[in-house]
Amino acid sequence: MRKAILVPLLILIVVVSGCLFKPPAEVRFSIDRTVVAPDGTLHVIVFVNNTGKVGLTGATLVLGDEGFQILQEPKFPDVLPVGHSVQLVWILKAPAIPGYYNLKLSLELTDELKRTWTGFYGQFRVFVSEGAAPSDELGLGISGPETLHGGETSTITVTIKNKLEAPIDLLDIRLDLLDGMRVVSADALPESISENGKITLRYTVKAPYAYRKGYISTILRYKIGSSEKSVIESVPLEVTWRPWNADSGTLKDAYDLKYHWITDGYLVDGYWSERYNSTPTFNRTELRNLTLKIIGNASSEPGAAKAIYGWMMRTYSFGDTTSTLEPDKILLQDRLSYAEGQILTTAMLRSIDIPARIVTLYNGTDCTRRPVTEFYTTDGWYVVDIEHGFIGSLEEYLASPYFPRLYQIITENGYRMVAQSPTELSGHEHVDVTGDFIANLEDRLISVVSGRLKPELRSKLTMVLNNLNENERLYALFLLSSAPNNDDLNRVMEEYSTKKIEQNVKTMYEFYRDMEWSDDFTRYWKIFAGDVG
Prior knowledge:
With 533 residues, this protein is of the alpha+beta class. It has four domains: 25-128, Immunoglobulins (Immunoglobulin-like); 138-240, Immunoglobulins (Immunoglobulin-like); 244-436, C8orf32 fold (Roll); 444-529, no CATH class. The protein contains 17 helices and 25 strands. The strands form six sheets. The chain has a six-stranded antiparallel sheet. A five-stranded mixed sheet has the order 10-17-16-12-14, with no helix packed on it. Strands 1-3-6-5 form a four-stranded antiparallel sheet, with no helix packed on it. Helix 5 (284-295) packs across helix 8 (338-351), helix 6 packs across helix 8 (338-351) and helix 12 runs parallel beside helix 14. It is globular.
């Protein structure tokens, strides 16, 4: 009898102590230099081998010393399958004050089951010195243009110099580019470099049709005797994309199936036209000339849209009465309805060769409610919502205080989101885009909220969400994403215990779930955060 009791007890002790739980990954940390100039850059290299039972979906590096700053994070694979590995490189900025620093690192991994794994640590002693010198073994250099235009092809040159009196084996080289950039052609890496030798490699790269600003890096693995090492160098690069300067062939290549949202002649459909006794067309050339003056030296579609929005806010006051659908007539008014503002915004964007469309609610009869403008970029759709003073990516719009009420209308009142796509002005001519707004909504909100949180708080968010049901999780994400700024969001997540967050979410959801939500969800954030008297 006693033995029967002891066996389960022993098993329980082993389980509690973690002996039966296999770590989900093998993680190794390294840095490319231990001596760095003040405000100089260094690289943290993290090798992750998935040794668990499910795919890994993300990695967050947390710095233990606030003197160091992360300048650029690597892009994690969509899913790192079991048995596969990846090498990730973070670019860090060193402290400005010389001295010795303990660079403490920890890594948090997330998996396909939305679990967060911690317990991976690294620590390095870094000397910040004015006299920081390059490696005395192997020199690596990377050079190329400081700026590129979207779609432009250019050459990046990598030089490798052996500073030793003996040959060095070269194992492999990787060029990390900005998101969307691709290598068109590349020189092959030799197997070795002779003593005091120098090698030049040329890469032909093509820039994406998008705005990008960051660092491009080259990572070289080499071997001296039996010792394997790595060296990394990075240089800044900015890519600008001005579609209004591109020809039609380039625009078609850049926007592909979305190109017609530039050339479509009508802005809203026949239902609108009949209701307001107006034809939704515009003089593209005249509007283009005005819009080009307004956007000035904008370097991307979002930059141009923000300039148009700012001009509109300075030029017009807004109300609810729509008198015309013609942008040429809207321009002459002093006061616009929100619908007229969206129509004019859409027309101005199309006039400078940015794909744009009006998106509205549709209840089976009326398709004029809550109009917003969407414009397309390589990174996806962006939203301009004049009534709520919002301009940003679709993901940011979903995580704004203005989307929860829209979500409630769609899911509880049977409305659909439609993009106005008329060709003949013959009644309702629109396409259903509801899925663009509500598909995988929870994951999309988690991505935005996690990006606003300090890295060390992201696992706390995961723990909170894991203890809520599906509806409560979505409500929690609506609350958190409605925080007016990142400081408020992080303050509440730091000060509140997971239990308090969960209880507040459950209580508020039960109280408000059957009510009509406010157009601005910030109201509920204030209650959640204790900011109301």
